[in-house]
Design brief:
The chain is an alpha/beta fold. The protein has 8 helices and 9 strands. β7 (about 175-180), α6 and β8 (about 200-205) form a beta-alpha-beta unit. α3 packs parallel to α5 (about 160-175) and α5 runs parallel beside α6.
C-alpha cells in the first residue's frame, strides 16, 4: 500500500502558481496570439514580460460558418499513416498546446495561438461534399481518416453534428473510415458506428496523453479526462467497434 502511494505521489504534478502580474487564461492552451507568417502588416503581443499593459481576454469561442469547396484531402506527407483525410472543422477548441494543426490556421488568416482554439471554422456543407466525392466513378473506396488534422468531436460537434452526417454518408456508401478523437462525444454516434462495425468499415482511436489530471489540463484543457476516455474505449469496444489507443505526445 505504501509503495503504491509513493508511486502515485511521484507522478503527481501541480500547475505552477501564476504571478500577480500575469493573468492566466484558464481553459485555453495558448495564452496569446502568435504572428501569422503569411500576414505582413500585423501587430502581435508575444512577450508578456516586455509589455507594461498586458490585457489578455478570454473571449467566447466564435463559430465561423462557411460553404467549403472540398472536404476530402489527399495526404502527401509520409510522416503520417493515412492516404486521405477529412475535417469538418478547422481550428479546435480542445486547445492542445502541442497540436501540429495550429500552424494550418494561419492559412485562414488567423493566428496559431489563441485564434486556433477561439475561432472555429465550420464547414457546413461537409456531408454534401462527401456524398459528391464518393459518387465519382473513379473513387476506389480507399479508407479516409476522420480527424486527420483537428478533432471531429470537439465541442462544435454538439451543435452542428457534421461528423454524424459524414458517418451516415460513409455508412450509406460502405466507405471505410478511421476516427481519432479525445472527446467522449463520440458515444453519441454509437448506433451508426455499430452498423459500420458490422460491415468492418470503421475503426476508432482515442488519444490519451496522461493520467495525471494537472498535466492533462495544462496540455489539453478542454478534452475529456483520461478515465473517461477509457470508458469510451470500453463502451464502444463492447458494442463491437474496433478500438485503439493513440499515445502521443509521450510525456516523461
Amino acid at each position: 500500500m505504501e509503495n503504491n502511494k509513493l508511486q502515485q505521489d511521484h507522478h503527481k504534478v501541480s500547475a505552477k502558481e501564476q504571478s500577480e502580474e500575469v493573468q492566466y487564461i484558464t481553459g485555453r492552451g495558448a495564452q496569446f496570439n502568435t504572428k501569422n507568417r503569411f500576414l505582413k502588416d500585423e501587430k502581435t503581443q508575444e512577450h508578456i514580460e516586455g509589455i507594461d499593459d498586458w490585457e489578455a481576454s478570454n473571449i467566447p469561442t466564435q463559430y465561423i460558418e462557411q460553404q467549403s469547396k472540398t472536404i476530402v484531402n489527399k495526404v502527401e506527407s509520409k510522416d503520417v499513416g493515412m492516404g486521405y483525410s477529412m475535417n469538418p472543422y478547422a481550428g479546435c477548441e480542445h486547445g492542445c498546446i502541442y497540436c501540429y494543426a495550429r500552424n494550418v490556421h494561419e492559412y485562414w488568416g488567423y493566428s496559431a495561438g489563441l485564434d486556433f482554439e477561439q475561432k472555429i471554422i465550420i464547414k457546413k456543407n461537409a456531408p454534401q461534399l462527401l456524398r459528391k466525392f464518393l459518387m465519382h466513378p473513379k473513387w476506389d473506396a480507399t479508407p479516409i481518416m476522420l480527424s486527420g488534422n483537428t478533432d471531429c468531436y470537439q465541442p462544435a460537434e454538439q451543435k452542428y453534428r457534421l461528423t454524424r452526417g459524414l458517418l451516415e454518408v460513409c455508412n450509406e456508401f460502405n466507405q471505410p473510415v478511421g476516427i481519432l478523437t479525445k472527446n467522449s462525444w463520440i458515444l453519441k454516434d454509437k448506433d451508426v458506428l455499430q452498423e459500420m462495425a458490422k460491415k468492418g468499415i470503421v475503426s476508432a482511436m482515442v488519444s490519451i496523453t496522461s493520467f495525471n489530471e494537472d498535466l492533462r489540463r495544462s496540455m489539453e484543457p478542454r478534452t475529456t479526462t483520461a478515465k473517461q476516455k477509457l470508458k469510451v474505449i470500453n463502451e464502444l469496444s463492447s458494442a463491437g467497434v474496433r478500438m485503439g489507443i493513440m499515445m502521443g505526445p509521450m510525456i516523461p
